[in-house]
Amino acid sequence: MKTISIDNVELHLSHPHAKSAQWIGQEEAQRQLLACWLTVDERDLPLVPRIIGHPGVGKTTLAIATAQERKQDIYIMQCTADTRPEDLLVTPVLSEQGAISYHASPLLSAVITGGVAVLDEGNRMSEKSWASLAGLFDYRRTVESIIAGITITAHSEFRAAVTMNEDESTFEIPDYIMSRLQPGIEVGFPSREDELQILSYNIPFCKEELLNLCVDFLQQAHGYDLPYSIRDGINAIRYTLKQKKQQPQEEDKKLFENAIKQILGNEALDLDSIAEKRKASQNQSPYDDIPDVNLGNLFFPDNDLLNPDSPEEPE
Ligand SMILES: Nc1ncnc2c1ncn2[C@@H]1O[C@H](COP(=O)(O)OP(=O)(O)OP(=O)(O)O)[C@@H](O)[C@H]1O
Ligand SMILES: [Mg+2]
């Protein structure tokens, strides 16, 4: 493990992410990310974008592949609701001899070494943790670890991005933090040709027919904007291939359908009807569920003599 001394405090650095990735298709998203990380003048600063999209569409892959394109090490920081400010920066670790050693997070390791940091699933992190990063993601490019008692200014090559799923929890991030995480880069569902290439890149040992079966399924789902992703497709193919190994006599189509059923549920086998149900619920007026109630019914039971809206005539 690499160590570095800052203001007489020895920090153990994290290892960069070891796996490489290739970005296939959606060149526009990668171009935008590269633009954010460019500097056009020595007084210019890089931007920290939000990479947004449905789960499993390739947000993390885009960040890894783009860091690789810039020939920089990438450090991935998995954010959760339990991520504390110290987890984002420095964690003290007690050794067997009773001495404390300080471990830099993947994020801080990128800040120090000039790597790329990805705050993965950033929308899940609490405001308190985000607050500790405010100075890092604006013109100050500086961060303070209270635990280690040090202030660190980012290396000029340090770059960062935050990935976020497109769900309601995205909006929990306070505005003053959101204003530092700009712009938003959308990753959408891939085209048919790109999807086939992505699947074949990820599962190079799968034969074309099964890949096509999976692309047909995914493309139909994307057409209805259902949240089934390439990751689901990759898992379905892998599971199909494993089952085929055990039961070579079974038809691929049947095994694939079973895989989809087990991964995404029974309803995924009938995409048309899910889409219809969705459409029907979208067309429903928000007032449709409110029963017809007159003012009198709010204050008196239905048959009460004092109820002016009583359905029964008083005798
Ligand atoms: N354009 C692409 N090029 C190459 N691989 C891709 C692409 N899009 C998706 N993939 C593959 O799809 C899978 C899911 O991608 P990834 O984990 O990056 O998605 P994600 O959007 O970060 O998901 P989550 O929201 O769950 O974090 C990976 O195996 C990845 O290799
Ligand atoms: Mg991800």
Strand order of the largest sheet: 4-7-10-3-11
- The structure class reads alpha/beta
- Contiguous runs where pLDDT drops below 50 for at least 5 residues: none
Name of the CATH homologous superfamily of the largest domain? P-loop containing nucleotide triphosphate hydrolases
* Average pLDDT level: 90
- What radius of gyration results from the CA coordinates? 26 Å
Biggest pleated-sheet summary: 5 strands, parallel
Number of strands: 11
CATH hierarchy, class of the largest domain: Alpha Beta
Give helix % range: 25-40%
Q: What does this molecule look like?
A:
With 315 residues, the protein is an alpha/beta fold. The protein has 2 domains: 184 residues, P-loop containing nucleotide triphosphate hydrolases (Rossmann fold, 3-Layer(aba) Sandwich), CATH 3.40.50; 84 residues. The chain is 37% helix and 16% strand. It is built from 12 helices and 11 strands. Strands 4-7-10-3-11 form a 5-stranded parallel β-sheet. The protein has a 4-stranded mixed β-sheet with strand order 1-2-6-5. It has a two-stranded antiparallel sheet with strand order 8-9. The radius of gyration is 26 Å and the shape is globular. The model has no long low-confidence stretch (mean pLDDT 90). The chain binds adenosine-5'-triphosphate (ATP) and magnesium ion (MG). Adenosine-5'-triphosphate (ATP) binds next to α2, β10, α7 and α9.
